[in-house]
C-alpha cells in the first residue's frame, strides 16, 4: 500500500538534473517527460530524429522545467564528455543518468556481420559505459547520484536472432553490478531495468507470427507500453529507491521468470 509520505518522495525530483540517452522517441522520450513531470530539468541526446527531439524539448518545457537536447552518438566518448560537462554547467549538477539509447540488428548468427555485431555493442553497451564514465566523477564528488541502465530480458535469457543484442544487454547487467560495487560507498547507486516487449518503433517491425508467439509467452497477455516503464525508471533515480543498488528490475509482464 502506497503511503502518502512515499507518494511525496516520488515527486521529489524538483531542481534535479537528469540525463536520458536516446529520448527523441519511444521509452527514452517517455522517461524524459516523466522526469520533467516530477520536477527535474532534463537533458537528452538522440542520433537522427531532429524534429522529434524538438517536440520532446517543447513537451518538457511545457511542464515548467528546463530541457536541453544534444544530437550526439552515444558511442562517441569525446562528445559524451562534452555533453555531460555542458549539462553540469547549465543545470548545476548531474544527479541521474538513464542509459536508454539502444538499437537492434537482428539476424541469425550465421548471417550476422561484424558491423551488425559492433554497431549493437557500441550503441547499447559502450554508450552506457561512456555516459557512466563521463558522469561518475561528478557523482562521486557530490556523494550522490543514480545511474539506470536499460537492458532487456534478451540479456537475461538470450534470444535467437539476437546474439549481438543479448550480449550487449547481458553486458549491461554485469556492468551495472560491478559499478554498483565500486561506487556504493560514495552513495552513488547503479541499477538495471530489464524490459520485455514494449510497444515502440523497435517492436513495430516484428512479423505477425513473432508477435503472436511472444504474446503467448507473456503471463500478462499483452506488450507493455512506454507508460508501463517510465514510472519505474523514475522510481529508481528517486530517493524512494535510496537503498536499492545493483538490482535488475524486470518490467516485462512476467515474461522472464
Ligand atoms: P526506439 O523507439 O527505437 O528509440 C531508440 C532511441 O535511441 C531513439 O531516440 C534513438 O534516436 C536513440 N538512439 C539510437 N541509437 C543511438 C545512438 N547511437 N546515439 C544516440 N541515440 C541513439 O527504441 P525503444 O524501444 O524506445 O528502446 C529504448 C531502450 O529500451 C533500448 O535500450 C532498448 O534496447 C530497450 N528495450 C526495448 C524493448 C522494447 O520492446 N521496445 C525491450 C527491451 C529493451 P533517433 O530517434 O535519433 O534514432
Structure description:
By secondary structure, the protein is α/β, with parallel strands linked by helices. 49% of the residues lie in helices and 15% in strands. It contains ten helices and seven strands. The N terminus is likely disordered. It has a single domain, classed as NAD(P)-binding Rossmann-like Domain (Rossmann fold, 3-Layer(aba) Sandwich), CATH 3.40.50.720. A seven-stranded parallel sheet has the order 3-2-1-4-5-6-7, with helices on both faces. The site of NADP nicotinamide-adenine-dinucleotide phosphate has 30 residues, from helix 2, strand 2, helix 5, strand 5 and helix 8.
What is the CA-based Rg, rounded?
17 Å
| Total domain units | 1
Q: Main sheet: which strands, in order across?
A: 3-2-1-4-5-6-7
Unique bound compounds: NADP nicotinamide-adenine-dinucleotide phosphate
What proportion strand?
15-25%
Mean pLDDT: 95
Alpha-carbon distance between the two ends = 24 Å
> Class in CATH?
Alpha Beta
- Examine the coordinates and then state which fold CATH places here, giving the name of the CATH topology: Rossmann fold
Low-confidence stretches: 1-10
The dominant shape is globular
The name of the CATH superfamily reads: NAD(P)-binding Rossmann-like Domain
Amino acid at each position: 500500500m502506497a503511503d502518502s509520505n512515499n507518494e511525496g518522495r516520488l515527486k521529489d525530483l524538483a531542481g534535479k538534473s537528469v540525463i536520458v540517452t536516446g529520448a527523441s522517441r519511444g521509452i527514452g522520450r517517455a522517461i524524459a517527460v516523466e522526469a520533467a513531470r516530477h520536477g527535474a530539468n532534463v537533458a537528452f541526446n538522440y542520433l537522427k530524429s531532429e524534429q522529434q527531439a524538438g517536440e520532446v524539448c517543447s513537451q518538457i518545457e511545457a511542464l515548467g522545467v528546463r530541457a536541453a537536447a544534444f544530437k550526439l552518438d552515444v558511442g562517441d566518448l569525446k562528445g559524451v564528455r562534452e555533453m555531460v560537462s555542458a549539462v553540469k554547467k547549465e543545470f548545476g549538477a548531474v544527479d541521474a543518468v538513464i542509459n536508454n539509447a539502444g538499437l537492434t540488428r537482428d539476424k541469425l548468427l550465421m548471417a550476422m556481420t561484424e558491423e551488425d555485431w559492433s554497431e549493437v555493442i557500441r550503441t547499447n553497451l559502450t554508450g552506457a559505459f561512456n555516459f557512466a564514465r563521463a558522469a561518475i566523477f561528478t557523482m562521486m564528488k557530490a556523494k550522490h547520484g543514480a545511474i539506470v541502465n536499460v537492458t532487456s530480458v534478451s540479456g537475461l535469457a538470450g534470444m535467437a536472432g539476437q546474439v549481438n543484442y543479448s550480449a550487449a544487454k547481458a553486458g549491461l547487467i554485469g556492468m551495472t553490478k560491478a559499478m554498483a560495487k565500486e561506487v556504493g560507498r560514495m552513495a552513488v547507486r547503479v541499477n538495471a531495468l530489464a524490459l520485455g516487449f514494449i510497444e515502440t518503433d523497435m517492436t513495430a517491425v516484428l512479423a505477425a507470427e513473432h508477435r503472436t508467439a511472444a504474446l503467448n509467452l507473456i503471463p500478462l497477455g499483452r506488450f507493455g507500453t512506454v507508460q508501463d516503464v517510465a514510472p519505474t525508471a523514475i522510481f529508481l533515480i528517486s530517493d524512494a529507491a535510496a537503498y536499492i543498488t545493483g538490482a535488475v528490475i524486470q518490467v516485462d509482464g512476467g515474461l522472464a521468470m
